[in-house]
Amino acid sequence: MTSRNFFVISGNVAQKPRQFAGKAPKTVVTVKAPKTVVTVAADEFWTDRQSGERKKRTEFLTAFTFNAKIGGFLVDKVNIGDQITIDGHIRASSYERNGEKIYTMDLEIARLDAHPARADRALDDEAA
């Protein structure tokens, strides 16, 4: 059986994408570029079985890239509220804080599709 390490997130940009100076980890094959981080608000909808009520939960997911093209596009062209779809790989890492080893799961962007917010889309949402 083949295994995969892959994610896809589609949602709205929750914070303006930002860049941080620094070097990519040795495990990441990349050009020398700053780390770019974006936070995406992804909604999940379901119907409660007992009450029949429609429910919604929003997850705020943070993803990063060391890719200069993707990072530059995020910072220059993507704004809060824009709808984006990102996919990539989940990376496990760790660091020490106060002598304790902390393990993290990070979302590394490999591909990005952006759909800028339109003024008439906001009007459609208000009418619904």
Note down, in words, how this protein is organized:
The protein is globular. The chain has 128 residues and is mainly beta. The chain is 15% helix and 52% strand. The protein has a five-stranded mixed barrel with strand order 1-3-4-6-5. The longest helix has 10 residues, at 68-77.
Keyword list:
five-stranded mixed β-barrel, disordered C terminus, 2 helices, 52% strand, mainly beta
Distance between the termini: 45 Å
Pattern of helices and strands: EEEEHEEH
What value does the Rg take, in angstroms?
Answer: 17 Å
- The largest sheet has its strands arranged as 1-3-4-6-5
What is the averaged pLDDT score?
86
Number of strands: 6
Structural class computed from helices and strand pairing: mainly beta
Coarse morphology: globular
Largest sheet: 5 strands, mixed, barrel
Runs in which pLDDT lies below 50 for 5 or more consecutive residues are 122-128
Any chance you could write out the topology, listing elements then pairs?
Layout: E1 7-13, E2 18-20, E3 35-47, E4 54-65, H1 68-77, E5 83-97, E6 100-115, H2 119-127
Parallel strand pairs: 4-6
Antiparallel strand pairs: 1-3, 1-5, 2-3, 3-4, 5-6
Brief overview:
The protein has helices spanning 68-77, 119-127; strands spanning 7-13, 18-20, 35-47, 54-65, 83-97, 100-115.
